[in-house]
Amino acid sequence: MMKELELNSHLFGGNAPFVEDLYEQYLADPASVDAQWRSYFDQLTQGAAKRDVARAPIEESFRQLTRSPVRVVQSGSADEAATERQVNLLRLISAYRIMGSRQATLDPLQRMDKTALPELDPKTHGLTDADMGITLGTNIGGLPRATPAEVHAFLKQTYCGNIGLEYMHITNNEQRRWVQDYFESRRSTPAFSQDEKRRILKQVTAAETLELYLGKKYVGQKRFGLEGGEAMIAAMDGIVQGAGRDGVQELIIGMAHRGRLNVLVNTLGKLPRDLFSEFEGRPTTELPSGDVKYHNGFSADIPTPGGPIHLSLAFNPSHLEIVNPVVEGSVRARQQRRGDKTGAQVLPVLIHGDSAFIGLGTNQGTFNLANTRGYGTGGTLHIVVNNQIGFTTSDTRDTRSTLYCTDIAKMVEAPIFHVNGDDPEAVCLTVEAALAFRKEFHRDVVIDIVCFRRHGHNEADDPFITQPMMYKKIAQHPGVRKKYADRLIAEGVVTDAEAAGLIDTYRAALDRGEHVEQTTLTDYKRSYAIDFGKYMGNHWRHPVTTAVPLADLQRLGQKLITVPDNFKLRANVEKILKDRGEMLNGNLGVDFGTAESLAYATMLTEGYAVRISGEDSGRGTFNHRHAVLHDQNREKWDQGVHVPLQHISENQAHFLVIDSILNEEAVLAFEYGYASSAPDELVIWEAQFGDFANGAQVVIDQFITSGETKWGRLCGLTMLLPHGYDGAGPEHSSARVERFLQMCAEHNIQVVQPSEAVQMFHVLRRQMVRPVRKPLIVIMSKKLLKAKNAASPIEQFSNGEFRTVIGEAGDIDAKKVKRVIACAGQVYYDLLGARTQREIKDIAIVRVEQLYPFPTEELKAELAKFGNAKEIMWVQEEPRNQGAWHQIRHRLENCMEPKQTLLFAGRPSSASPAVGYMSKHNAQLKAFIDEALTL
């Protein structure tokens, strides 16, 4: 038999996958394949129990078979013809599985290119009209044996109807076959009961009626309506009810503005009267600035067959997809709190627009996080509301370079279900499949609802200007609800009067500002809910104790430097740990890396979890942290790594330090979402260089600095931004202090620039111990991380607190001081060194360690010590037009006496953050130091 098949090897070239599919069918039912193939497979298995046979050798035999040389055989033999027909049929089946979606009836407007694909024609695969009536073995669900004509009809129904499937890009055979079996066993055809169909109709009726009502009640106001995509509300209902049935306890939703108001009312149960109040400029919650109605979030508890489920719609700015990693971070925090390691209890759902999904790089970053150790959430359900248009662009040549807007999801091998938005039942079937796939494999899955946009980008926009032909089609479209209602009337599921009655009932409820029925649970008490009340209204000066007894510090410090037996450290790391032991004993000053580690150790024993992420966070970009130790003799991660902070005590809180993907925007957004949902956890994002935070500027602007004033969202995220002018050039010097200070108002964030190691210890502990949750921006000097003059005695950790201002530390007669220099960060040591070298006694130096909220009282008190000083000078290493100068000048003036003069010394104004030539760097440093120390 093997020889006979080898002689026919021209039938196998490149067709190993087809033979493997036939083998899978043989394993399920040997009688379902032709006798020739059955005999061949019997020889391979040699009579063993079919499922006990090792697969790898067999699959290799298939590959070898395809590489066999072509042999000349006698044409026209019966065996050759039967084999050829069988393989040709397998080719046709595979073609539909790969390319069938391109012929699916997905577009409600019927404008998509439907050029016939030769690959989907049986004749292309050598199947003649005569072959079409011959019964063959198949490998498709429900048809173990069938004629090619029957198989072709099956394939068109399954792959070219109102659902188009893309899953053959998945390399995992189990996942790929799961999708295949799910849809082929159903022929991609919904089979909902009459009650389920009536519920779906009710959902699309609610979606359409709300939009029409708002359009008439608030003429001309922007609402970014869902008209044309109403099936999405039916999909969301299916997700909520199906997830609840599967045991999901929380469902976190992220979406931009298209259809958001509809989701708020019809999915989350927001009262229509509250929405109307927002349209009328009367918000239900007063915030310092607030936000427009289609950016606001909402939370509710909804009944499902499996019990209550908590829904939370994340607040979202107009930067569209940026909310996606924020949602993922929030989900991860909730899963961590629950001990939900697989994502079975908390589900992220992200709703995208078509152009934004493929167009915004945030999604590449978010997908790249999906299956990593520190960021995975057990799979995300993605819904694309595919309006087939981006803003005012209708030509896909201008919106993407891929065939589908969903092609980006293939990077994580997510199955993609395209579905016609005019068929709500098909939409709901894909929802059921998506939930089941995610539950089974804990991976992302995408539903692409192909629909249209009834109005322009907003309701005041005229889309005919740029898309006349498209909008002529849209104007003729009766609407999703009408088409589906007519279908159910024809099926006898509802009467015309019942369908119309759904509209009347919903509209009457809107007139009352109510829902048709109670959809939310008002008295349900959730487990794992976080009480933010204790963090509300507390001032940043709230008194706390951050010092830790010396004995505790030394005991915990020993844990930090202890490694397992037979654990080989790199020599330089071994020396770092040895030095840390000397620091604990008081023989060396404690450096920044050790101070930071001690802060974490103490917090972990006090019940505060710690999470640190960044591109080099485990080791530390500057070789200073070493929170993760690597055995030099073992390769495997789970065997060759030791994390001392995970072994501090038996009942310690959770500690995670993770090296992130090379993406600032998505990772910082993730950590913001995480911190916003975990106020009892110290969450830190560390930039590799502070300059690199500019890659995440949208997160800083639209979430970190403004989230509280816009949405009332508290967040205790800490950002560590390495900063300092050391001659390293424009992109490795400045954390752009000025940008953060520009955004400071209403005590929204904290900006600190510690110049001593003990300051790092106290400010990190203050961030958690103090009942205040505000983002903390640490402008962290690179040079000082290991500098001996910036190290602190161990005794300072067991007393004192974070000092917002550090006064003159030298032996200077205050009465003789003529000038007081105020500065921040590492430039202090340049000034101090030059002053000492020049033996200057009439210039004092004061450090401002907290730039915002500005410590006016403390600085006034320090300046008052030098009553004879006529000049106050701000000195910074940044150029004059950058750094803190222009943002704190008025604050410095508020601390001065009327007769005193305010001066400046620093680098000259520059279009670049820093120079790239060491000689020029040194010259600039010398020049402004000379200016600062010359009276």
TrEMBL record:
Annotated Pfam families: 2-oxogl_dehyd_N, E1_dh, OxoGdeHyase_C, Transket_pyr
GO terms classed as biological process: glycolytic process; tricarboxylic acid cycle
Root EC class: oxidoreductase
Keyword field: Glycolysis, Oxidoreductase, Thiamine pyrophosphate
Catalytic activity: N(6)-[(R)-lipoyl]-L-lysyl-[protein] + 2-oxoglutarate + H(+) = N(6)-[(R)-S(8)-succinyldihydrolipoyl]-L-lysyl-[protein] + CO2
Gene3D superfamilies: 3.40.50.12470, 3.40.50.970, Multifunctional 2-oxoglutarate metabolism enzyme, C-terminal domain (3.40.50.11610), TPP helical domain (1.10.287.1150)
Named cofactor requirement(s): thiamine diphosphate
GO cellular component, one term: cytosol
Family that this chain belongs to: Belongs to the alpha-ketoglutarate dehydrogenase family.
Primary role: E1 component of the 2-oxoglutarate dehydrogenase (OGDH) complex which catalyzes the decarboxylation of 2-oxoglutarate, the first step in the conversion of 2-oxoglutarate to succinyl-CoA and CO(2).
Protein name: 2-oxoglutarate dehydrogenase E1 component
Organism annotation: Andreprevotia lacus DSM 23236
